[in-house]
């Protein structure tokens, strides 16, 4: 029974934010339940040798596949997810010769128009920044132990509450077909 109690305390929102920072201080990853701090992310990635900064904010939109969305909810295996995020951040930083990188992901309920993820990068030039940010975001979606639940406002369970669908971190329609970026 102690193990179950330990797991519950690891997932308790009161024990967040949880962060990891690379040994050299150039990569920061974080999981949190409260609103994301965009200003902190912007300050973290700044570097006197960087001529380009890219800050991507993934926000909850009010619709998906022609259905009204009420909110998103995220769950994670925090210790594993943080280690995976830091590995992604350091790999991408090294591959693209980036100055600093940050990944911050929100857990719990994320209302419409609020951020669920920040991916930030600084580099000497814009080409590396764009490529690195895109690759980092895609790797987070593919590999991080973070799961998304999409809550739809147009479908309700017998108790009258909105129903949710667990979603892969890739956009698919209600039939599971990939939705291509436009």
UniProtKB/TrEMBL annotation:
CDD domains: MoaE
InterPro entries named in the record: MoaE_sf, Mopterin_biosynth_MoaE
Name recorded for this polypeptide: Uncharacterized protein
Natural source organism: Knufia fluminis
SUPFAM superfamilies according to UniProt: Molybdopterin synthase subunit MoaE
Pfam families (alphabetical): MoaE
GO terms (BP aspect): Mo-molybdopterin cofactor biosynthetic process
Chain spans, region Disordered: 156-182
């Amino acid at each position: 029974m102690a193990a179950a109690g330990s797991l519950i305390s690891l997932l308790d929102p009161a024990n967040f934010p949880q962060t990891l920072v690379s040994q050299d201080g150039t990569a920061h990853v974080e999981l949190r339940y409260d609103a994301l701090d965009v200003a902190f992310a912007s300050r973290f990635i700044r570097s006197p040798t960087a001529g380009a900064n890219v800050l991507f904010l993934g926000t909850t939109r009010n619709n998906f596949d022609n259905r009204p969305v009420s909110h998103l909810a995220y769950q994670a295996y925090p210790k594993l997810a943080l280690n995976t995020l830091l590995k992604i951040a350091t790999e991408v930083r090294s591959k693209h010769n980036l100055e600093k990188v940050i990944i911050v992901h929100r857990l719990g309920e994320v209302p419409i128009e609020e951020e669920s993820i920040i991916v930030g990068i600084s580099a000497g030039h814009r080409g590396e920044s764009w490529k690195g940010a895109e690759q980092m975001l895609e790797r987070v979606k593919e590999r991080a132990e973070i799961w998304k639940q999409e809550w739809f406002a147009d479908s309700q369970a017998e108790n009258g509450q909105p129903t949710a669908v667990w979603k892969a971190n890739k956009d698919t329609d209600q039939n599971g077909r990939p939705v291509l970026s436009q």
